[in-house]
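User: My collaborator sent over this chain with a note saying "see what the structure looks like." That's all I know about it. Can you take a look?
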Amino acid sequence: MIERGRQAFDGRAWEGAYSCLLEADGRSTLDPDDLERFAVTAYLAGSERHACELWERAFHASLERSDAARAARCAFYLSFFLLLAGGSGRSSGWLARGQRVLDAAKADCVESGYLLVPSALKSLFDGDAATALSSFQAALAIGERFGDRDLIALARMSCGQCLLRMGQSSAAVRLYDEVMVSVIADEVAPILAGIIYCAVLLDCRSIFDVDRAREWTAALDEWCASQRGLVPYRGQCLVHRSEILQLRGEWPAAVSEADRARRVLADPPQPALGDAHYQRAELHRLRGEFIQAEAAYREANRWGRDPQPGLSLLRLGQGRSDAAAASIRRSAEQAHNPVARLPLLAPYVEIMLASDEVSSARSAADELSELALEIGASYLDALALHTTSAVLLAEGDTRAALGVLRRACAAWHELGAPYEGARARLLCAKACRILGDHEAARLEIDAARVVFDQLGAAPDVARAERLEQEARTGAPYGLTAREGEVLRLVASGQTNKAIAAQLVISEKTVERHVSGIFLKLGVSSRSAATAWFYEYARE
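Assistant: Without extra context I'll predict from the sequence alone. Here is the result:
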């Protein structure tokens, strides 16, 4: 039975290996080699708690045989996986125990490099990327000295994580690419290869590097499929697949994959379960299923996934712009590095524009553009163009906005992102109407409407219908809802100060709105704006 277990282990048939080794362990005492093999198998077969018990047994068995290096390696795995599971106290204890074993034996071995990893990872989790980087670099040097491919890959990837959080995204991505070459070439043990796959994919998602996310997701999917009975990483892979299908406009398939991910990750509950619930919430929100979206965001939060920025966008879709603005501001204030801030910036721009806080939107759009330039990812470039054009439109620079929007539309098309492209087309329609090109505006609205109908994006269908109605009735030319309110009050003869008091906004904000109204309507005075209102918009 033990031999069958070893063969199944070598063939990466984790479920079969686990059954055989479990039976063998019940018949006789396993030696440290087989205990360690059994621990790895248990982890990959989805029994993380049993894996930790087996590593602990292997630790003690190794000590009995005076094998300090193996004992230290077992202590590393215990410390590492306990830390990832949130048990920082036990993780620290096993790390100290492993180091004490090496110190007592005065052993010069690669395990001393492995033992640097958990404390460095703790520093990274605590936000001290610089300290973490120094430790990971030391671990990398030890791995290179001993020629240990597993430690080299793990430490190099971890250095990339530190650099990314320090704002050095280009250097981080170069390290990721190098590491992924070794992982795909099967040079790294499965237990660490899966962790590296998922960590690199998460960071590619966080910086919107869609091209790499697609490539690595396909590789992870193939890697998972090649191993029978593999439990970790499969659910995370399904989440990534759902996100990519969503981007491609294949929303029913994206929903199916997100639901599969939730089932796979729920029994037993795994760390990525929160990501699966968040992804399902996003798809509900985009389809206008707001009650279901709210429930899914709450589940994501329950399983440790911050529901932002999706929850703020949900509040905006529900018409609760004040709540949306308050929550996205809080999230942005608490995000202290580029990786944390990047996913928030485009939603921040959208929500600030809806709240008539154009200067705040401008700051976020500029930050996004700077990060896009640094990172050089095609999706991020398109997103920066999109948000910048929306701000330009709100600032009244319509011709410049339309020029940037055309580039954004082309970028979304090249990426194969129909939903994002359709949203850009609606902005094009607004710009064309302001510039008096009503035929072009109708064409853009029609093209966007077709995409939204096909996707089932109900809130965006309603948005397109409102623009169509405005085009038919000659309603205010591209005025925002707040600008329409200000125009009505100007036409009633109220001063800027009175308007500010009534709308509970600053007088300076009213002045900015009035300037924007003049620009959009092609008038130069309050009396001319009033005349326009009574001729075209009073009804």
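A starting point for your reply to your collaborator: The mean pLDDT is 91.
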